[in-house]
Amino acid sequence: MNKSDIINEIAKQTGMTKVDITKVFDAFVDAIYAAAKAKKDVRIIELFTLTVKHRAASQGKNPRTGAAITIPAANVPKFKAPKKLKDALNG
After folding, report:
1. Is residue 91's pLDDT more than 90?
2. Residue pair 73/54 in contact by the 8 Å Cβ criterion
3. DSSP designation for 73
4. Model's pTM, two decimal places?
5. Please, which residues have CB within 8 angstroms of residue 4's CB and are 6 or more apart in sequence?
């Protein structure tokens, strides 16, 4: 399911216009990105929990040449699915 599919489904269920839903959806995504950029956790209990974790720099190998490379430190997103979603997938 992609963005258009989600917008179409919401429009069908609510009777709202696709234009309005697109504005709300885009604002929703922008708010999540802004929170992540500020290293704030995002908890939407019905959908996911997003936390930002710091990954330290490490050493790795180039798989083609075997040469040692440095993997730089980075902030990475970590998603956790809620129990309700896990139960829906397995029940």
Report:
1. no
2. yes
3. P
4. 0.78
5. none
